Amino acid sequence: MAVELNMPRCIYAEQLEEWLLLEAFSRLWQEQGKGHLPITHSLAVRNDLLHSASHLLDAESSRELHRYAEQLQDLLPATAARMFPRPLTSPSSCSNAEILANQFLQQGSGSLWTAVRQIAQNLPFQASSRLLGDKHLHFTVGAYGHRQYVGLLKLTRSHQAVCKMMNALIALINPGQIWTTVVINVNFDAQVHADVNNASFESLLVGLSQLWVQDDTGRTYQEHKGCLLRGRLHHVSGAAILLKAGTVLHSVQAWTGGDRITMVAYAIGQHAHIKPEDRDFLTQLGFGLPGAPSPFYPLPELPA
């Protein structure tokens, strides 16, 4: 079974504002006879949406969206800024995502949700092909385990600021989370499966899609190895769920309306064999390793 988490108040308010703005933008766009919004808006944050509206909509429609944005600011609850993790001396690589993440760290505080979404737009995604799904793009950092081989994924050292920001968001959403690895997937379409190489700890999934999870009391059926299995659909658009992905069967459902972006934090099955120096390095980046909680999290709110 899966457990749906309540998003922290600060994240929920930002999600609601972005969703309402995106819906209004989409309506104005379609009223101009332009069909659906470009899929590039899947990760657009508030200011990006307003900037795009100034260029893509006619003058009156753009003014209407800006007026609506001002009304939302007055109506929605204000949220306190969050302290960001300690900054690096300099970015660990010249990638756009790492430079941007380090700028956020140097800034010191702000919205983790908005910052991580902006960072995700600039990640150096890599193509991947798994037997469980179609080819998709992914960005993965942290520890890896493949049979007797255990180590750090290549992008971890070159994207240390990115790791710090993503891990801070994970710890904010679920302070008790245990994870060695984070993957951000783009348009991952998975059939019914269990992630058998994961450790027994619960995985945290945050994303923009539906997830089917096996549940004997559920009313939604999926075929697996010639049998119909009962389960439940979990909407994870702007939400988060916990599940033991290593033992519980699950699959990703079809989606519409742009790219599907999901972030998953999980622990590899071989976590006990991570080298001590690698454990220390991952802990410094904010990963919540089994038996070694990060000293930097959870992060406090700044005083109003």
User: How many domains in all?
Assistant: 2
Rounded to an integer in angstroms, the radius of gyration calculated over CA atoms is: 20 Å
How helical, in percent, are the residues?
25-40%
Give the distance, in angstroms, between the N- and C-terminal Cα atoms: 39 Å
Structural class: alpha+beta
Can you offer a commentary on this structure?
Helix 1 (9-31) runs parallel beside helix 2. The protein is an alpha+beta fold. The chain has two domains: 6-75, no CATH class; 125-284, Jelly Rolls, CATH 2.60.120. Mean pLDDT is 78; it is low at 208-216, 218-236 and 293-300. The protein has eight helices and 14 strands. The strands form three sheets. Strands 1, 4, 5, 6, 7, 8, 12 and 14 form an eight-stranded antiparallel beta sheet that branches. A four-stranded antiparallel beta sheet has the order 10-11-9-13, with no helix packed on it. Strands 2-3 form a two-stranded antiparallel ribbon.
